[in-house]
Design goal:
With 208 residues, this protein is of the alpha+beta class. Helix content is 19%, strand content 33%.
Length: 208
């Protein structure tokens, strides 16, 4: 079985992320920002109020919009691509881009970050994410990402993919996200599908 066939099989049957409540909230933030230019200037002069950091304990899972100090983080889906043997590659293993050895597996996580702050941009970076492996949650610091560090404007979202190479031994996996204003990182169980509770983003409605 080729890597592409395996990716297609692993991707099948995953629940879609129901992001309608979050999309509606993002649109309301954009509309309020566009209509309140004069108010925005006053807020900049006085210092814009910030919502309280949501204190949700989890556990968190895939396909869940998780509240952060600036908005939300979500792991939309996860794929595992097993490494290929030399035989499968006709003996050619050198010079192959993103080659994964047969005793390893490549974990691919699609992530989305959303800034729900009305008057502040938010910095982000792939280094905010770490993969944790096994019962002891051993961190895998090396990450390959489809995006670079940048800033999210108010009401904006960005999506990208993270790739980690880990031992092919069936260990349990978590993804850790460091929120700059939380005392502890957000830990997401990559083997669990989560559900966003009602009222999780109420604090962001109170900015105006």
């Amino acid at each position: 079985m080729t890597a592409h066939q395996m990716e297609a099989r692993l991707s099948a049957g995953r629940p879609a992320v129901n992001r309608l409540p979050l999309v509606a909230l993002v649109l309301s933030v954009v509309a309020l920002a566009a209509a309140g230019v004069k108010i925005g200037v006053g807020l900049i002069e006085r210092g814009a109020p910030e919502p309280a950091v949501p204190q949700l304990k989890g556990p968190f899972g895939v396909s869940q919009d998780i509240p952060t100090s600036f908005g939300a983080v979500a792991i939309d889906n996860v794929e595992k691509v097993n490494g290929l043997t030399a035989k499968a590659l006709s003996g050619v293993t050198h010079g192959i881009s993103n080659y994964v050895p047969p005793n390893k597996v490549q974990v691919q996580a699609s992530v989305t970050l959303t800034n729900l702050l009305e008057a502040k941009s938010q910095a982000y970076s792939p280094t905010q994410f770490r993969l944790l492996v096994g019962k002891r949650r051993k961190p895998q610091k090396e990450v390959r990402a489809s995006f670079r560090a940048g800033r999210l404007q108010p009401g904006a979202s960005m999506s990208g993919q993270l790739k980690f190479i880990v031992p092919r031994n069936g260990s349990k996996l978590w993804l850790e996200f460091t929120d700059p204003k939380r005392s502890t990182p957000v830990v997401i169980d990559l083997g669990k599908t989560g559900r966003t509770p009602e009222g999780a983003f109420d604090g962001f409605h109170k900015q105006h």
